[in-house]
What does this fold into?
Amino acid sequence: MAANAIDQTRRMLSLVTYLRERPGAHVADVARAFGITEDELISDLDVLPMCGTSFRGGDLLDIDTDGDRIWWHNPDDVAEPLRLAADEATALLVAARAVSTLPGLRESDREALLRATAKLEAAAGEAAGASSRLSVTFESEGGVFAEVDRAISERRRLWVRYYSPARDELTEREVDPIRLFAVGHTYMEAWCRLSEARRTFRLDRVAEIRILDEHAAPPEIELRDLSEGLVQPSAEDPEVVVEVGPGGRWVAEYYPHDRAEELADGGLRITLRTPVPASLRRLALRLGSDGRIVSPAELAESAREAATAALAAYDGVE
It folds into this structure.
């Protein structure tokens, strides 16, 4: 079971101290010390260089690995006392207060966060007063994240009402959560009891969520490598051909595809694969006059019908 987000944060904070005291530590030794796999450790090490003592991108952790040993090149620089500018202190205080209100946050974590916030307020002086006049209200995704994170931690099953844009419908299902991850949006990977298969759910499409008493027991499956992005078409997926004009060339940059051929008008003929071809109807509507679905024929006809229905909705509207 993948670690939840809060446990991973705790581990990475400990990892910083551990690595500072052990220059050139072996990957296998560090993974064993933290009770995680080497792949999980490498994933943490990919994140750490984006962390540091400045919101402006300076003073970041200069940590890298050759796959066998781990090197931290600037531990002394990062160890210097932290000095926050007024805007940095304000942003940190606002974020801390917002996170402390998340539903599902463990009480011990909430108390620790509030203690740290109080110390930061005392040190921030006038900036703390400015931050008190600002607030952040999380949309429903924040509550969903907290519930999923809690379910992963307690290894419990979830009931969700989920909106599927491909079918334009809400479905109810029970899922065994596996992990949370972010690729542009925040997602939950889970074993879906409705389809008896692994599924990925975008949190902002979860209309309702509830933690169940049942123990979550997803089958042992290999976690997908997301380094190439969330959408990784298979050679077995149906083939779709889309033609776009010059204004639609962005499709080739946004969608993984097999090939993109230049057209005489400056557009592209793009061949791609997707497990759910119907999901591309929305792409056709978004493109408008800048593109069209060429094949398969039934998908092209479905896109035409959707466009006709959309235009009919505007009849009589001034």
About this structure: DSSP finds eleven helices and twelve strands in the chain. The chain has a mean pLDDT of 77. The radius of gyration is 24 Å.
